[in-house]
Amino acid sequence: MEKMISICGLTCSECPALIATQKNDDEERRKVAETWSKEFKADLKPEDINCMGCIVDSDKLFNYCKICEIRKCGKGKKVKNCAYCEEYACDKLSEFFKMAPIAKTNLDEIRKNR
Description:
Blueprint lengths: L15 H8 L2 H14 L23 H5 L1 H9 L13 H9 L1 H13 L1
Helix pairs in contact: 1-2, 5-6
């Protein structure tokens, strides 16, 4: 699979939810739900693990991605991801980078090479 970078800069193509969805693997969904429930102190069920990536227009989108403010902003501005935004890096994104520095690395690389 081609590398898919989300709007915020995470690598969707490496996400366990996307991988389980593409394989249509219920056992993988169960494992991801169990792991993420512990990690994020949430009550996730295998049916919650169904996502084709935040840049794709699909009904199959992980619950958080449906409400993600960064995703909403990028979709509203019709940018492939935040690296293509004139306001890069905004306050929302800068805050997110504190939790996910790899996202900044990915987006900086895209900006450098676009």
